[in-house]
Amino acid sequence: MTQQADLDTATKGLDPPFAVVDLDAFDANAKELVRRAHGLPIRVASKSIRCAYLLERALGMPGYQGVMAYSLREALWLTRKWRDTPLADTDILVAYPTTDHAALRDLAADPEAARVISVIADSAAHLDLIDAALGVDHPKIRICLEFDAAWRPLPGVYVGTRRSPVRTPRQAVRLAEGIVRRPGFSLVGVMSYEGQIAGLGDNPPGNPVKGAVIAWMQRRSGPELIKRRSDAIAAIRGVTDLEFVNGGGTGSLELTSADPSVTELAAGSGLIGPWLFDSYRGFSPRPAAFYALSVVRRPAPRIATLFAGGYVASGTGTPDRLPQPYLPQGLKLLGTEGAGEVQTPVVGAAADTLKLGDRVWMRHSKAGELAERFQEYHLVRGDRVERTVPTYRGEAVNFG
């Protein structure tokens, strides 16, 4: 059977819109990420999954260790969900700064959570905020220092994500010394995210010139970062011992694993294989997550209109944030409408094979945001649904 026939057969009793995850593809992607990590453990980026069952599935595989959460409330929820399970000791790094006073108070009041959760700081102001939320005489809070991984080839030129202001080894040591000196804090790790490599494909469809520029930038950015990060980590280790040094993302596992200062990697999108990750030369994750929409109109030849489907990804607001028709092959979005709130027209020769009630299978641009649209994922293997599991939304939690 074809993939479309398998998906249609597995879900024949379901009415769209609904979402599925192909377990064979998910597991194959997990193994491929481990191969690309060259022996370093992978911390699972939860924002790219947003489904506890799939997080647990990945953590149960060889090569995976710990979670990179995107919210302190999320980390607390996972910690309590997994208490009294084999995942009770899972190390969770909250990779984005928190200003949530209530969540910080919950963390300080829960010794078991405080034992496994680390929060990000890239300035003394983050420590000041925690002190303000908890009072100065608070239990130890585990801190991970974030080090800037962006590329700055010339003054005023910044290539990468706008994250930490800590860029030089000297700045890193100064902050590390300040953390170590302050009561109530324990510096346990360092993180840096090379978004200009991990999150930027070097083979964008139909734009070889842009791809060549990106590849050129990445070839120069990578060695510069390895040298600068290695110097910073060596200097920080002169101040205190570190439990972990985290780097990378799905798109940069090979580069980051070659950095001798890094002890673990991060990845999440590569498990799901959203269509944005089709634009990398060096690897190709299998598409693992799809959503089905129903044909509700045939307004003209070569056009079929689908119900709903406007699940647009966060980011730059450019066409690469739109979902894409996947099956049947030969469909694309209509340029004048895109993916809509209540209807999504698709155009192409394949539209003439569709009748009312038929399904079109779509892929999201990014990995985790699809879970915010659906309460459950139907987990398929071949032509059957193996089980149905809740997403974060299906468990009635939302972390921003």
What is the gist of this entry?
This protein has helices at 3-10, 23-36, 52-59, 72-81, 101-108, 111-116, 124-134, 169-181, 195-198, 208-237, 253-257, 269-272; strands at residues 18-22, 42-45, 64-69, 92-94, 117-121, 141-146, 185-192, 244-247, 264-267, 289-300, 303-307, 324-327, 332-333, 343-347, 359-363, 376-381, 384-390. The protein is α/β, with parallel strands linked by helices.
Q: How would you characterize this protein structure?
A:
The mean pLDDT is 93. The two termini are 40 Å apart. It is built from 12 helices and 17 strands. The strands form 2 sheets. Strands 1, 10, 11, 12, 13, 14, 15, 16 and 17 form a 9-stranded mixed sheet that branches. The chain has an 8-stranded parallel beta barrel with strand order 2-3-4-5-6-7-8-9, surrounded by 4 helices. 30% of the residues lie in helices and 23% in strands. α8 (169-181) packs across α10.
Which parts are unreliable, with pLDDT below 50 for 5 consecutive residues or more?
Answer: none
What is the quaternary state of this protein?
Answer: single chain
Number of strands: 17
What would the average pLDDT be, to the nearest integer? 93
| Termini separation | 40 Å
Strand content: 15-25%
The rough form would be described as: globular
Write the H/E string, N to C.
Answer: HEHEHEHEHHEHEHEHHEHEHEEEEEEEE
Count of helical stretches: 12
What class, by secondary structure content?
Answer: alpha/beta
Note the main sheet.
9 strands, mixed
Cα-atom radius of gyration: 22 Å
